[in-house]
Design a protein that fits this description.
The longest helix has 14 residues. Strand 5 and strand 6 form a beta hairpin. The protein has a 3-stranded mixed β-sheet, with no helix packed on it. A two-stranded antiparallel sheet has the order 1-2. A two-stranded antiparallel ribbon has the order 3-4. The chain is built from 6 helices and 7 strands, in the order ββααααββββαβα. It is 44% helix and 18% strand. Bound molecules: zinc ion (ZN) and manganese (II) ion.
């Protein structure tokens, strides 16, 4: 099954089997619930909270998933590095599958997180390493702005006033 994320298409089965292989390598058990959470996170680009993941997966009664199970599994997936836990100030954490390296743009009005691709920051790490002697491991850069929906709402509010 193909799925799309910001204009790029990926293969869900391939993605999922790579992730499962990584879990096997680390001797982590693959339960149906764990597989379902992984699959959902790979497919979605909505950066869901624990509650949103639970609400989505609990619709499948056969899976019989509890909120605690979602929590525990997310912790495992974060620990092995498959999933990124994003904390923004004191708001609930949001979760993102790590598969494809990408950057985030965050709406300053509604908090929605968008994905985009940009790999031109290698010069940044080089400069940091050269100037400080640190051994660089990763860099973190988020972009902030108004999402298209919030722009529209703002325009409508101006027109009405
Ligand atoms: Zn917004
Ligand atoms: Mn993302």
């Amino acid at each position: 099954m193909e799925y799309n994320q910001n204009g790029l298409s990926y293969n869900l089965e391939e993605e999922l089997s790579d992730a499962i292989e990584l879990l096997r390598d680390k001797s982590i058990r693959i339960t149906p619930q764990r597989r379902a959470i992984l699959s959902f996170l790979i497919e979605t680009d909505s950066h869901p909270t624990v509650d949103e993941i639970y609400q989505n997966l609990s619709q499948d009664e056969e899976l019989g998933i509890s909120l605690a199970t979602v929590y525990n599994n997310l912790n495992v997936l974060v620990d092995v590095g498959l999933v990124n836990q994003m904390k923004f100030s004191d708001v609930t954490s949001r979760y993102d599958y790590r598969g494809h390296s990408h950057r985030h743009i965050i709406c300053t009005n509604c908090g929605k997180i968008g994905d985009f691709h940009y790999d031109e920051l290698s010069g940044l790490e080089e400069a940091a390493q050269k100037q400080t002697g640190y051994q660089v491991q990763f860099n973190k850069l988020d972009v902030y702005g108004l999402c298209p929906e919030c722009q529209k709402l703002k325009e409508e509010a101006i027109e009405e006033s």
